[in-house]
């Protein structure tokens, strides 16, 4: 049974009815979407004994039965992942000229064909150029971009698509009915969503849940599959919009402690945010949600501007992708929440001061907290020109003091604004010139983030608390960091030479 690929099934049916079978097919698409199943059905169809081509495969003739039972000698399945060498393909070429044992055609199904070596592809190409009349090749791959163009040009190509949730649910309903499994409709929908377009994954998840011999409820599916209830996602958005960092982080921790997978939870948040975006773009009919959840989504959609919503989606999507790379599973989600929380747009949605005077704009804070010489119209280059004078003895002493108290400054900033703390830690170097704190960053992105209103404010307050005087902040991009030797380093020493001539950098003092 092939689900959700009608465009391919109909094309192959037409070819069978007209008896216009190609000698080579390429089935490309995501895993679990029916590529190998379709290849087997094609092998069954071209060898079926039914006289009417439109009724093939009949499923009852000797050849169809032999294929169902795995004893049909003229269908050969090859796993390219474990048969990658040119010798394997040469062995195939030697055997392909022999006539079929039972059917009309020998059908070679090569799965994960992109795993073949270059030499193996070249050897296969010779066979595709001059195939025997009784041979049909079906190449299946999830990474079509790795197939040489010379091979692609000799195959009839069919693109398999991810299967929509509704069609996966219909397929699961047929299985549930045939196997007499008791399952709630909402649980089937959850399984379909978890499968992310793969019918094979959906069947595996259903089999996992059915092994308990109990009625599969939504709660049971959420517990076993480690998914979070939709209410947890809604609560996260509420905490974000209401500027409640402690509550938001508590929600993340409690959800993960309850057994939810961090990547799955992040994906659910992204899916919810995508629904908000669709609602804002007047495509609410595309949102699959209950009436109660949809009502909450409409409220959230109105509270977020489209540009800010896009940025938050990107932030949480990054968390879903990067979760496996972190030794602390909750960290990507925490970072995504804090980064989304600290945007100036989000703060203007639901101010926590209960209607007090409007907050200063980023430009006003920049004028108050950044160096007077800072001129946005002149850019980074102009700013860099003002800060490469030889430091005075007072500047050297102040920078040494800065190094000693830097951990304390970071801790103060962390309590006020975790994102600003992270940006300060990413600064390549830092030192004081007069009443300026100079911060060097490796990219424009980091520099611009540091220059946001809430980040500057947190750092200025910490500096004032520690030094008991006002310091202006000047942020620069790392274009000249390697040439700027910190005052603690002797200009003619080994460290300075490494920094200046060998591309080194100081990570700590």
Structure at a glance:
It is built from 24 helices and eight strands.
CATH class of the largest domain: Alpha Beta
Q: Gap between N and C termini, in Å?
A: 65 Å
Strand content: 5-15%
| Biggest beta-sheet profile | 5 strands, parallel
CATH topology of the largest domain: Rossmann fold
Number of strands: 8
The number of helices is 24
What would your notes on this structure say?
By secondary structure, this protein is α/β, with parallel strands linked by helices. It has 4 domains: 6-159, Rossmann fold; 165-225, Helicase, Ruva Protein, domain 3; 230-349, Zinc Finger, Delta Prime, domain 3, CATH 1.20.272; 362-501, GMP Synthetase, Chain A, domain 3 (2-Layer Sandwich), CATH 3.30.300.180. The chain is built from 24 helices and 8 strands. The protein has helices at 6-17, 35-47, 62-68, 86-96, 118-129, 149-152, 165-179, 185-194, 199-210, 218-225, 230-241, 245-257, 262-280, 291-303, 306-322, 331-341, 344-349, 362-369, 379-385, 393-416, 418-426, 444-450, 453-467, 494-501, and strands at residues 24-28, 75-79, 106-111, 135-141, 156-159, 429-433, 436-441, 472-477. The chain has a 5-stranded parallel β-sheet, covered by helices on one side. It has a 3-stranded mixed β-sheet with strand order 6-7-8. Helix 4 (86-96) links the parallel strand 2 (75-79) and strand 3. It is elongated and about 95 Å long. It starts with 5 loop residues before the first helix and ends in an 8-residue tail after the last helix. Mean pLDDT is 80; it is low at 344-388.
């Amino acid at each position: 049974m092939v689900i959700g690929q009608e465009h391919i099934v109909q094309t192959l049916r037409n070819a069978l009815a007209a008896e216009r079978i190609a000698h080579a097919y390429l089935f490309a698409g995501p895993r679990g979407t029916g590529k190998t199943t379709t290849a087997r059905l094609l092998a069954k169809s071209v060898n079926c004994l039914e006289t009417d081509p439109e009724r093939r495969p009949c499923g009852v003739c000797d050849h169809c039965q032999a294929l169902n039972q795995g004893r049909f000698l003229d269908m050969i399945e090859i796993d390219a992942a474990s048969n990658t060498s040119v010798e394997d393909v040469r062995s195939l070429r030697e055997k392909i000229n022999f006539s079929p044992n039972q059917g009309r055609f020998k059908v070679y199904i090569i799965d994960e064909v992109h795993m073949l070596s270059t030499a193996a592809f070249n050897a296969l190409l010779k066979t595709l150029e001059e195939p025997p009349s009784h041979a049909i090749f079906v190449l299946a791959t999830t990474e079509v971009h790795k197939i040489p163009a010379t091979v692609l040009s000799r195959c009839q190509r069919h693109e398999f698509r991810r299967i929509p949730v509704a069609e996966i649910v219909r397929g699961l309903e047929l299985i549930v009915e045939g196997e007499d499994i008791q399952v709630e409709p909402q649980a089937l929908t959850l399984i379909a969503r978890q499968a992310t377009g793969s019918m094979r994954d959906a069947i595996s998840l259903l089999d996992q849940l059915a092994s308990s011999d109990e009625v599969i409820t939504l709660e049971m599916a959420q517990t076993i599959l480690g998914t979070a209830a939709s209410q947890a996602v809604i609560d996260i958005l509420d905490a974000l919009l209401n500027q409640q960092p402690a509550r938001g982080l508590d929600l993340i921790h409690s959800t993960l402690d309850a057994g939810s997978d961090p990547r799955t939870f992040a994906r659910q948040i992204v899916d919810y945010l995508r629904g908000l975006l669709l609602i804002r773009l007047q495509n609410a009919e595309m949102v699959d949600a209950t009436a109660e959840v949809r009502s909450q989504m409409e409220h959230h959609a109105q509270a977020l501007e489209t540009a800010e919503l896009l940025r938050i989606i990107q932030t949480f999507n990054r968390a879903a992708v990067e979760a496996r790379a972190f030794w602390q599973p909750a960290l990507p989600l925490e970072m995504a929440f804090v980064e989304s929380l600290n945007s100036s747009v989000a703060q203007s949605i639901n101010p926590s001061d209960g209607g007090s005077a409007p907050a200063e704009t980023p430009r006003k804070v920049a004028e108050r907290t950044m160096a007077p010489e800072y001129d946005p119209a002149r850019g980074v280059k102009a700013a860099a020109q003002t800060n490469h004078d030889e430091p005075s003895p007072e500047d050297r002493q102040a920078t040494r003091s800065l190094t000693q108290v830097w951990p304390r400054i970071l801790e103060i900033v962390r309590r006020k604004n975790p994102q600003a703390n992270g940006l300060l830690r990413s600064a390549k170097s830092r030192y004081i010139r007069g009443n300026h704190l100079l911060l060097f960053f490796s990219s424009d992105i980091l520099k611009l983030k540091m220059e946001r209103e809430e980040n500057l404010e947190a750092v200025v307050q910490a500096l004032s608390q520690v030094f008991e005087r006002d310091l202006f902040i000047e942020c620069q991009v790392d274009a000249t960091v390697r040439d700027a030797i910190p005052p603690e380093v002797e200009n003619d020493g080994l460290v300075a030479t490494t920094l200046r001539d060998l591309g080194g950098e100081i990570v700590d003092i």
